[in-house]
Amino acid sequence: MFANFDFDVILRSLPYLFYQGMTFTLLLTTLATLGGILVGTLLALMRLSGIPFLAIPAAAYVNLMRSVPFVLMIFWFYFLVPYIGQWVTRSAQPLQVGAFASCLVTFTLFEAAFFCEIMRAGIQSIPRGQVAAAQALGMTYPTTMGYIVLPQAFRNMVPVLLTQTIVLFQDTSLVYVISVTDFLGAASKIAERDGRLVEMYTFAACIYFIISLMASRAVQQMQQRIAIIR
Amino acid sequence: MIKIDAVSKWYGPAQVLKDCTAEVARGEVVVVCGPSGSGKSTLIKCVNGLEPFQKGLITVDGISVSDPKTNLPKLRARVGMVFQHFELFPHLTVRRNLTLPQIKVLHRDPGQADKTGMRLLDRVGLRAHADKFPGQLSGGQQQRVAIARALAMDPIAMLFDEPTSALDPEMIQEVLDVMVTLAKDGMTMIVVTHEMGFARKVANRVVFMDKGEIVEDAPTADFFGKPHSQRAQLFLSKILQH
């Protein structure tokens, strides 16, 4: 039944698929995850601060981000940011923002909303007594957070954080809406050029599957290594 | 050294501390006892500002706890506290539990912090366990580490909030032994506990609380000999029966 298939197309296009496509996909995933964790942690601390002036904007942001389709965000952001940039820098022309930069900002901001909620749950899972003990020793809020609460919260959250990252890895394929070529986009281009849709899409699916599977295995192992002994 | 002056505290409409007044002098050991829910833990947590209170004044070494101008972390660093549930930091080794606060709060250099930490671990008999995690120790051992951690800060006073209540019976003694030694060394201590044997042995005074009030504040011998109030008599008869 495979007589009509040409699997050679995969071999021929490997360099393009991986050097162009996969590099972009992995780079975007990594940077957006790091940025998302950073911004998400800040948002979580704002939400948990109990100061309305900080908590309400953070909550509003998270709820907004979570109630808009991601594709819409990518699209909208790509076309809007140049004008915001123009307004901020007061230049005559809309600001030139590269597609990659636009993607990175959108993904970071979007992931930050999800990481914020994961972080918030993680921070709230640390018993109040731990904070009390740190305070009783004379630790300030930043020290308590940085050395006592967040390290424990991170350990508790690692499985969820990395699972979210694996979802993000798959979601990067949505950049096709602004014509950026990621791994799936590269596969799709070859598929259409050579008329080998089945082969290329099957291959892409396999690669996504393998990477996601390996990543979740790695998560499990890591989880065992960093688990807190109780 | 510690002065509690007419302190009242409310949780919403419920008053949990009513006009509490007490004083602890340097080197004195004061045991606070009373039925559960009587506000003894709340009172002791007010002393280092872990619980806010609405009325009254608490001073530690002349510094007001509730004054917004007080550097609370700095004050807390000078008052050791031991909790019912130990509250060691589970992600850090015993050694790091002892050194981290010294380094981050007192800005000691790591070598000095480690030396101090090990000396105190020695004192509570746990030097061999320095590189274990809290989860690998028994409850009694964890509580002794917690005491060592508080002592590493060179506190001027120690607060104990039911230090043996969460322990299995066979581990209570090892913790009490450490506390007795500490008391005999002249540490200023406020101890919330039901361990009347400990109170008899080392307390200078016993404070009895009920329903948020300090009902009785008497020298230890007087308290156990002939408590004035009926509530204290009732409490003692219940707790000393077995």
Could you describe the 3D structure shown?
The complex is a heterodimer of chains A (230) and B (242). Chain A has eight helices and no strands. Chain A starts with 7 loop residues before the first helix and ends with a helix. By secondary structure, chain A is an all-alpha fold. Chain A has a domain at 22-180: MetI-like (MetI-like fold, Orthogonal Bundle), CATH 1.10.3720. Chain A has helices at residues 8-48, 52-66, 70-89, 99-124, 128-136, 141-171, 183-194, 197-226. Chain A is flat. By secondary structure, chain B is of the alpha/beta class. Helix content of chain B is 38%, strand content 25%. Chain B contains nine helices and ten strands. In chain B, the strands form two sheets. Chain B has a six-stranded mixed β-sheet with strand order 6-7-8-3-9-10, sandwiched between helices. A four-stranded antiparallel β-sheet of chain B has the order 2-1-4-5, covered by helices on one side. In chain B, a hairpin with a 2-residue loop joins strand 4 (55-60) and strand 5 (63-64). In chain B, helix 4 packs across helix 5. The longest helix of chain B has 16 residues, at 169-184. Chain B is globular, with a radius of gyration of 18 Å. The two termini of chain B are 35 Å apart.
List the helices and strands and how they pair.
The complex is a heterodimer of chains A (230) and B (242).
Chain A: H1 8-48, H2 52-66, H3 70-89, H4 99-124, H5 128-136, H6 141-171, H7 183-194, H8 197-226
Chain B: E1 2-11, E2 14-24, E3 29-33, H1 40-47, E4 55-60, E5 63-64, H2 72-77, E6 79-82, H3 94-105, H4 110-123, H5 139-151, E7 157-161, H6 169-184, E8 189-192, H7 196-202, E9 205-210, E10 213-219, H8 220-225, H9 230-239
Parallel strand pairs in B: 3-8, 3-9, 6-7, 7-8
Antiparallel strand pairs in B: 1-2, 1-4, 4-5, 9-10
Helix pairs in contact in B: 3-4, 3-5, 4-5, 5-6
